[in-house]
Amino acid sequence: MRLARTVAAVTVLMVACSGGTAPTGATADTDLEAGRTLYLQNCAACHGVDLRGTDTGPSFLSIVYEPGHHPDVAFQVAVTRGVQPHHWDFGPMPPVPGRGETDVAAIVAYVRQVQQQEGFEPYPP
């Protein structure tokens, strides 16, 4: 419980201090394409090629994953440490080895772009 509170506090601080500006121009396109590629390689098997989930992982288009509920840093923590189920019954997500902060940031940028384009689904599905 203490660890959960510490992670939550750090999350709030990191989000509050992050600035949150998105890249623009050619760099943004390159970053988003890299994020898409990394997502397809590392996330799509469970979360779906279209981010709508599978029978082994939830949809990232669920309102549960909007930035105000699961900020970008929550994705970093999930990839680095894994995560126990708390919204779904898919079981725990294990850490994803070999994916650093930069890779996860690119994946999150891609996920956020798709969320913005597609909108969010209600919870529960």
Write the layout of secondary structure elements.
Elements: H1 2-17, H2 25-42, H3 44-47, H4 72-81, H5 101-118
Helix pairs in contact: 2-5, 4-5
Poorly predicted runs of 5 or more residues: 1-23
Largest β sheet strand count, sense and barrel closure: none
- Report the strand count: 0
SSE succession: HHHHH
Task: Please name the defining characteristics of this protein.
125 residues; mainly alpha; 5 helices
Q: Could you characterize what this model shows?
A:
- The longest helix has 18 residues, at 25-42.
- The protein has helices at residues 2-17, 25-42, 44-47, 72-81, 101-118.
- It is 53% helix and 0% strand.
- By secondary structure, it is an all-alpha fold.
Structure described in brief:
By secondary structure, the chain is mainly alpha-helical. Helices cover 53% and strands 0% of the residues. The chain has helices at 2-17, 25-42, 44-47, 72-81, 101-118.
